[in-house]
Amino acid sequence: MEYASSILDLVGDTPMVRLDRVTRELGPADRRPLILGKLEMLNPGGSVKDRIGLPMIEAAERAGLLRPGGTIIEPTSGNTGHGLAIAAAIKGYRCIFVMADKQSAEKQALLRAYGAEVVRCPTNVAPESPESYYSVARRLARDIPGAFQPDQYHNMENPLAHERTTGPEIWEQTAGTITHLVVSVGTGGTVSGCAHYLKAQRPELQVIGADPEGSVLSGDTARPYLTEGIGEDFFPGTYDPDVVDRWERVSDAEAFAAARRLTREEGILSGESCGTALVATLRVARELSASAEGREAVMVVILPDGGRSYLSKLYDDEWMRANGLLGTATGRERILAVLRNGHGTDLPDVVLARTTDRVATAIDTLERYGISQMPVTERADDSIEGIVGSINERSLLERAYRDPGVVERTVGEVMDRPLPTIDADASMDQAFQLLSDGAPALVAVVDGRPAGVVTKLDLLEYLAHKVGARG
């Protein structure tokens, strides 16, 4: 028979997989690097942090800092807590985890599922604030009898765990051919431990650190960001700054989009830190692909955790849209392109109705141009300041059905509210947001003048045209 003595025996020895689809943009396969993702989400607790939970607990037991019946207290973004909670469940310790309130509901629920208690603290406070999750954890560890704080930010068992396990696994799995290691950095334990081992085997190895915008590790100014689990507003003691050869700073939008790409193109349900690491990987790989060095390079990117902890955020379209993160390459294209779609290279003159026009005349205009919406102006010119309302075929049909005599009235008597305006240089994502919020159409503006009307159908036709052109 073959079985493990406990779930803790199944931590580590995670597989690696070639990332072949998200890398196609880099050019022909024979010119781009071999890019391998190390799937740390396949650890029992779902992340790379499983590797440090048991070593920190066992070191504390040996030192007499944690005794039977004791309490483990740790500030965590969730994943370290899961690793500690698994070990604590087997060893019989009580756990209290202190989390910033930006962490996903799934992470909190998972900790409670293991029997842990969760204390939430505000995200946007300085580390030294008494409200920060660092300060709250220290206070609880001080005041609760028998409590022990592993302190992943200064506990050297954190990087040592990776020096003993993750680094050697990567070396063996690549048969010693690895040339580049990409790691999204938080406590610095993973990148420091892996780099210490791998650089001892291959000193010329290039280590790339991936860091969120707003993290001080890469030299940025500390400020809030949405990506969870990586980046810091201070320098942890477990981070060795000498091991990182190059930093790549990644925005929330880039990280979230890349994580979703990994899921949809490679079938790897990924967390936000995976997206951050992938963005950094592709940047470096693009440079390598442009040189002869590319075909010889072997890049390993550590994918720290899976996407199940982010279903209510990263994989929720409404949450993404509300946080301005739901964007695509096409979505970033400008409204100007939508206006030009199917109308040659020149913008068409916008079609306006006058407040003094008869409704019957306005209906004829809608029919003649094959349009469904028209802004209404009270001026003789086409300035945006003159627009005071709008009409659309649906509203006119409903009015005419109830009262056929409405066609003899003036447009000013029956018009609806003015359509929202949008700059023609705005993105399609911005237009989509306005239309999704209930606007029937938008008036695109160029140099203070209406340049056209954009409807949902216009966006749909443009997208269809783009897809057709690619196919």
How are the SSEs ordered, and which strands pair?
Layout: E1 16-18, E2 34-39, H1 50-62, E3 71-75, H2 79-91, E4 94-100, H3 105-113, E5 117-121, H4 133-143, E6 147-148, H5 157-173, E7 180-184, H6 189-201, E8 206-212, E9 246-250, H7 252-266, H8 272-289, E10 298-303, H9 317-322, H10 335-340, E11 353-354, H11 359-369, E12 373-377, E13 387-392, H12 393-402, H13 411-414, E14 421-423, H14 428-436, E15 442-446, E16 449-454, H15 456-470
Parallel strand pairs: 2-10, 3-4, 3-6, 4-5, 7-8, 7-10, 8-9, 11-12, 14-15
Antiparallel strand pairs: 1-2, 12-13, 15-16
| Envelope shape | elongated
CATH top level of the largest domain? Alpha Beta
Main sheet makeup: 6 strands, mixed
Structural class: alpha/beta
Mean pLDDT: 89
Distance between the termini: 53 Å
Features:
single chain; 471 residues; CBS-domain
Structure description:
There is one protein chain. The chain is an alpha/beta fold and 471 residues long. It folds into three domains: 7-46 and 159-322, 3-Layer(aba) Sandwich (Rossmann fold); 50-148, Rossmann fold (3-Layer(aba) Sandwich); 335-470, CBS-domain, CATH 3.10.580.10. It is 36% helix and 17% strand.
Can you summarize this structure?
This protein is of the alpha/beta class. The protein has 3 domains: 204 residues, Rossmann fold, CATH 3.40.50; 99 residues, Rossmann fold (3-Layer(aba) Sandwich); 136 residues, Roll (CBS-domain). It contains 15 helices and 16 strands.
